[in-house]
Amino acid sequence: MKKKYLSLRMTNYLSFLIDKKAVIISLVLLMFGLIVFLVSLGMGSAYISPLNVAKTLFGSGTDMEKIVIHTFRLPRVIVALFVGMSLAVAGAILQGMIRNPLASPDVLGMTSGAAAAVVAFLALFSDQNHSLTISIHWLPLGAFVGATVSVLLVYMLAWKNGISPFRLVLIGIGISALMQAGTTFLMITGPIYRASQANVWITGSIYGASWKDVAFLVPWALILLMISIVSARKLNIQELGDEIALGVGVSLQRQRLFLLLLSTALTGGAVAFAGGIGFVGLMAPHMARRLVGSSFGALLPAAALLGAILVMLADLVGRTMFAPLEVPAGVFTAALGAPYFIYLLYKSRQ
Amino acid sequence: MLKTNYAKGLGLMLACLLLGASMWMSIILGYTNTSWKMAIDAFLHNDGSNEHIVITTVRLPRALIGASVGASLAMAGALMQALTKNPLASPSIFGINAGAGFFIVLVITFFHVSSFQAFTWFAFLGAAIAAVSVFVISASGKEGMTPIKLTLAGTAVAALFSSLTQGMLSANEKALEEVLFWLAGSVSGRKLDMLAAVFPYLSMAWIGAFLLAPKVNVLMLGDDVAAGLGQRINMVKLAAAILVVLLAGGSVAVAGPIGFIGMMVPHIARGVVGTDHRWLLPYCALMGGILLVLADISARYVLMPQEVPVGIMTALIGVPFFIYIARRGILKK
């Protein structure tokens, strides 16, 4: 009989049992992601065919193509790629830990915490003429701090002889509401230009990403994604339930805190550069689970690829469909995410 | 807790007086300096002075709207908590306010509708769509409608509607300016006409809720028991759901999505009169009105002379309460 599973065992800490089917599906996703990547680079006010895009990336190609791709589109698409991967993996970790398919960075208050911090940042560092007194490059740090503060708040308030996943979600909803109230307060008391600026950011957009952003985001995301893959084993155990996890000798609460912080760090990075792109952290892990099963060794890479594809597509549609008007990518992920979510729940009935 | 019917009736009278007093305060207090004598003069022989105009055209509508919206939201919350047996159920947490808000922003930005009648109908439509989707989503799946699924489905639907609303607004800056204050939930700057447009629906829903109260009591015993006692449970649930949509949709049309009144007030009222809905619903109505009117008065003083939307004040009071309920455990009977 042919073996259905592939076991990868490098050290005691790094070992995976992977469904062979999952490997093939992941490769297909990778190919698809690559195609979306090339098409995204080519589409826009000046169309460049995917073949020419590939050529330009490897050095040849006309000067115009080089400028368009290297200075304008490439940083944006790379940011979309990493934002998508980070959000999807953050969502997958949360869903595994909370053992509920509806958990996501949005529900736990991470996104709204970051949004509140961004609006506060814009309010604090504006002078009389409504221009910023310090560099806008500090904004991502503010967003990250906001996400972390609100998650720590959620964690502390949900603590009662340990963390129960359900309580965590409920407190997350409450803190989310508080952060939203704070955001609205700051937007209303401030000048309208700031409100609209903040509103675009809150909805989630990758508009105007530069190489500087890439230089910040990519190392951050890469390291965290690596750590997530290494933690896949912990997630597999968490998903079995509290009793079994305790039974096999896991220090449950410490691991939960670690996983929570990991997913906050991932979300914080993504939110800092792209705003609150919703539903990716909810959708991508779900779709990945349908495709490759729920072993985290296979699930995390597949979710990451799907997340990247989703955000790249949403950004592509947002900047081309109503050109010259830019529609924030977050609108499309929400419009896509919600019906998908309802479909999933409907299907689970059968 | 009040035990006898006599005590409960007395409490109800007291609540009526408190509501009257807080509405009276709402008419007198604010940025424009007025006294209670001036207020009486404004109603009896209005001389057209600045203060009298403020009292009759700004403060009075505001107090009336605050009281009706607070009462409606609190009753909607009480009905939802009874219907779902989930102590966190309320129009804002289950996405019903967000659904109504989304539809109103949609008609403002895309269809340039400005008739208030149309707003009201779209608010009802949005509230109904949100309520149905939350219900369908949470009822699907093998284990049926568990509290956690219901809560999460509500949050997801609310998140969907609010991100779509934000998306529309980010594409249209002018509309943002118009609706931002409304979206935060506020009872100021509304005319009496607006209340008059929804008042028939709201008052119908109040009466309907009081009539339905005995049936809700039976339903609280559990579906099986209620069916065993000969109740058509699906009809009762449907009627309660329609009442919730009318109450929440009508409130949102006038005042925007004001959160947490619907969650908090039923808990406080249950602490006072217990779980008999024949008493609980009137208490909720009065206490909801009092709470919203008081929150609105405090919203005037936080950033004087600027006003803070009352929705932000209710969130500030409501979130700690929400966290307290969540920590106490919502699965406990």
TrEMBL record, chain A:
It comes from the Bacteria. It is a multi-pass membrane protein. The keyword Metal-binding does not apply. The keyword Repeat does not apply. Keywords: Cell membrane, Membrane, Transmembrane, Transmembrane helix, Transport. CDD domains: TM_ABC_iron-siderophores_like. The chain crosses the membrane at residues 21-48, 74-95, 107-126, 138-157, 169-194, 214-236, 257-284, 296-317, 329-346. It is found in: Cell membrane. InterPro entries: ABC_BtuC-like (IPR037294), ABC_transptr_permease_BtuC (IPR000522). One of its GO terms (cellular component) is plasma membrane. Belongs to the binding-protein-dependent transport system permease family. FecCD subfamily. This is Iron ABC transporter permease.
TrEMBL record, chain B:
One of its GO terms (cellular component) is plasma membrane. The keyword DNA repair does not apply. CDD domains: TM_ABC_iron-siderophores_like. It is found in: Cell membrane. The chain crosses the membrane at residues 12-31, 63-83, 89-111, 118-138, 192-213, 238-260, 280-302, 308-326. Its main location: membrane. InterPro entries: ABC_BtuC-like (IPR037294), ABC_transptr_permease_BtuC (IPR000522). The keyword Cell membrane applies. Keywords: Cell membrane, Membrane, Transmembrane, Transmembrane helix, Transport. It comes from the Bacteria. It is a multi-pass membrane protein. Belongs to the binding-protein-dependent transport system permease family. FecCD subfamily. This is Iron ABC transporter permease. It comes from Anoxybacteroides rupiense.
